[in-house]
Fold each of these.
Amino acid sequence: MDIAEIAVSDYVEVDADERLAKVRSLFERENPKGVIVTDDGEYAGVVTQKKLVQSHVADDAKVGAMMQSAPRVERTADVREVARVLVEGGTKIAPVFEAGRLWGIVTEDAILRAVLEHLDAITVGQIYTEDVIAVDEDTHVGQAINLLREHGVSRLPVLDDEGLLSGMVTTYDIVDIVVRDMDKATVGERAGDIDRVLDLPVYDVMNSPVATVTTDETVDAAVERMLDNDFAGLVVTPADDDRVVEGILTKTDVLRALTYTEEEHMDVQITNITLLDTISRDDVRRSIEEVVDKYKQMQVRHAHVRFHEHKEKLRGTPLIQCQIRLRTNEGQVAGSGEGYGAEPAFNVALDKLQRNVLEIKHLRSDEEYRGQLLRKLGEL
């Protein structure tokens, strides 16, 4: 299936020299998935709502200061490949080109609607993310913003004093009350207002109750719920208690599942692939395969590698955080690390991944030995 039927020529467009205040007002009024930025009529990039939270750029700055590159796709591109580039580019929108000219856009939601009927064979338990970044009810809004930036996520489950699900705080929830006020403030009393906003507990801005899903539900039902209610994600809980957080299912998780392949080599997906410098996708795949080969019983269905760039630099090289997550028949296994440049960060994360893989191997060996011992004792 290609995207010719789901790409649209109707999209929101602004010039790179336009004031940033215009884009913020567009998000407030229309809540688009993203905005196309042009320069002298030519495509230049996109601006997303997540980017607004990740920046303190003032309203009178130009839009070009906040735009990011997004993967260009052809109008006849395959849906699976477009899903891959959206995930790896960390965006929900891609510009669509035809005969070398900008024709329109394709969005995350459009792809999910197009493949919805094919998702009934997959369960939430097969693709959801187990590692969840959560906050307490008394976590300050400023701390929540830092977590959103640091982990590159758009939502944070909120837990009460007993560790049970209480609410959800999202990028959308805090854009208006934080970013807009921060950009308008300068000094004096107004600056004091900013501090008070950042010191608010997330309890005051979170959404409640929270939409949940269980691991045994089919993905098509979960995606339909997200599309119908304009949710970007659902909290995954046990069937018998919808306040115990087991994980989270996002639209990105579903897009990632669409890219799974049946090729001979491992399927590896890289988020923020543009940060790769001295290593390639094949280098990353081969390195992960070497680690997995040390434990033959582990069947890896999919590997996800995420790079995130920090502002800190060493002799011009940015500090990079790398997270590796394997989805296997033994559950999810992960490793993370930091370094100056993508390759050092990946190597640190790979080392931690290897330790975790070997730990699983040793635990399995211990279980097998214990089973053998019990059988022998039973024969006495």
Amino acid sequence: MTFDFSPRSAFLQEAQARGMVFQCTDAEGLDGALMEGPVTAYIGFDPTADSLHIGNALSIMMLRLLQKHGHRPIALMGGGTARIGDPSFRDEARSLISAETITHNLAGIEASLRQFLNFDDHNSTILVNNADWLERLSYLDLLQDVGVQFSVSRMLSFESVKQRLDREQGLTFLEFNYSILQAYDFRELYRRHDAILQMGGSDQWGNIVSGIDLARRTDNARLYGLTTPLVTTSSGAKMGKSAKGALWVRSEKLPVFDYWQFWRNTEDADVGRFLKMFTDLPVEECERLGRLEGAEINEAKKILATEATAICHGRKAAEEAALTALTVFERGSFQAALPEKELSEKLFSEGLPVFRLLNEAELTTSGGEARRLIRGGGAKLNDQVITDENWIVTKSDFQNNTLKLSLGKKKHILIRLI
């Protein structure tokens, strides 16, 4: 069912006000359980990389909000399910990950979660790994205990499954088991930690419902599911997608300044919505900032960038990133000393590949030379190393119509839009 009612519990009230809820299996039942006392809820994170990224941010913020209201969050790391890979709404099967890579990635996922969540309070986050129980399962026992509870016809009716079956590659039997294992996780966390709520992105709806149904059939348990919306920008882009690559939350993978700058470049129409979803500022203040226009909306974007970065990297690092942006783009600390090149903003209306920008700036003489220097790590944009020779530079990369382009240690130029 779509979440469309007036909750009484503080957690659901705030989650709803912040636009963080998409669907709930039994909103009134969950609201009542939240009113009765602390609820334990979980979200799963498969270790497909050694860091979480901005696309995971809304799920993490749901756990933060749950913790804020006195409930206990569980962060489930999918050390077991990572060996299969979630097929939900994917065009093709995930590449299988080795045991060594999974172990490495798990450490990075734990470090990512510790940046956002409290692991030291009375309602501290519980960190678990589903490999602890999935790797001990006997296949015959799983079939007898769990397989008998699943209807293949019902599983085939899930939208995420139907979309894959309609595509040329289809769905492997290995992937088809993912939903069963995730359902098993929900029941196991209910048995071990009394977890009665699973949260996740809207693409997890079918998997969540399967877990609720399994626990009802085998344990006569009343469990709940809550999903967050798919976050897209006003222009239709999926949240967290960037020409620079994945927007990681760990500073070892993405400099703090780049993380800050991502939020600073939020589209005007998204500022209020993103403030509510990705910061701890009061809802009323988020809405006020989101209504600003003209030059004032840029100040709201800086607040969004600093508050979102403070949650991930700490207040000190966030303020240092804000100061760096102020020094570089607004006070023009390097402007007097560097040569300038004026380019028409029309060049960037649909984006300009960075190797072409190097040519336009006359730092290189050919596309081949530019590509070679980028591949060698010799090019920087706003003091950040460019790793993708096809990275598209857009007007959002400019601050006050200014962009710094560097080649090696000695060649620097300011690009100004006209």
